[in-house]
Specification:
It is a single chain. By secondary structure, the protein is mainly α. It is built from nine helices and four strands, in the order ααααααααβββαβ. It has helices at about 1-15, 20-30, 30-65, 70, 75-90, 100-140, 145-165, 165-195, 230-250, and strands spanning about 200, 200-205, 215, 255-259. α3 runs parallel beside α6 and α7 packs antiparallel against α8. The longest helix is centred in the middle third of the chain and has 42 residues, at about 100-140. It is elongated and about 105 Å long. The chain starts with a helix and ends with a strand.
Length: about 260
């Protein structure tokens, strides 16, 4: 807006074709020109000296948007983020732009810590899933290529996690790992049930018998209409339902997986 104002004033002056008319136009616009003179010095200083810091502030705020929800829960980061937005939205930010580096540092400290903590938790969860599928695949396939294929989806998820800075994407990656394990387990169990194919006239030894698994989610067994267990009766009803579900699953010759 300030640049547009200056350009308009300049065009009015340059439109005059002789010196006398030019001087008359300068006198007519002298108050506007004086006002713009101060603004011009601010603009010139901004584009010659402050622009890199402005761009750094803008790009940093864009980067922090990935984890804005979590950062806003931290008082230090939340205050700094609000101030960054105020500076970027200010009509004349020239005097306050010097705050940018300190504001970026404050948010970055919190963001780096959040990323490190959440990545470590996500990697641990994926590693736990990987260990389970490795054990199941080894029991079914031994050291065959099929066992390696079972693990590949989880390996890819882990590699993505190591490069990921978005906390939301980390949480999603853990869910994808859970889904990959479920798909892998079903594949292994189906293979164990199928008769081994003949190869070159030689019958392969059958895969070890692997029981199918059934997922039990205790939260789904809460007493009807209840969000909390509040009485001894509630506890008894919940435990009774859980025991029945577990026993029914075992009776069907299935393994129980608690989630």
């Amino acid at each position: 807006e300030d640049i547009d104002t200056g350009m308009l004033l300049t065009k009015k002056l340059l439109a005059e074709e002789n010196g006398a008319a030019f001087i008359e136009r300068v006198n007519a616009l002298k108050n506007d020109l004086k006002d713009f003179s101060d603004t011009f010095h601010d603009l010139e200083h901004f584009y010659e000296h402050q622009r890199p810091l402005w761009d750094k502030l803008r790009m940093s705020l864009d980067r922090f948007k990935l984890n804005r929800l979590e950062l806003d829960r931290d008082p230090q980061a939340a205050g700094a983020l609000r101030r960054m937005g105020d500076i970027l939205g200010a009509k004349s930010p020239y005097r306050v732009l010097k705050e940018a580096d300190d504001l970026i540092r404050k948010v970055d400290e919190v963001n780096v810590k959040l990323i490190a903590e959440n990545r470590a938790q996500a990697l641990a969860a994926v590693d736990k899933h990987t260990a389970m599928i490795v054990q199941e695949a080894a029991a079914a396939y031994g050291a065959s290529p099929q066992a390696i294929e079972c693990v590949k989806p989880l390996q890819r998820i882990r590699q993505d996690l190591e490069r990921q800075d978005s906390l939301a994407h980390m949480a999603q990656a853990v869910k994808e790992a859970e889904l990959a394990v479920e798909v892998g387990l079903k594949g292994i169990e189906e293979t164990a049930k199928a008769p081994p194919p003949a190869k070159n006239g030689t019958v392969r030894p059958p895969a070890p018998a692997i029981k199918p698994h059934s997922v039990v989610k205790p939260a789904d067994l809460m007493p009807s209409g209840k969000s909390f267990l509040e009485t001894t009766e509630d506890v008894e009803a919940f435990l009774k339902a859980l025991r029945k579900r577990l026993e029914d699953t075992i009776a069907k010759n299935e393994r129980v997986q608690i989630k």
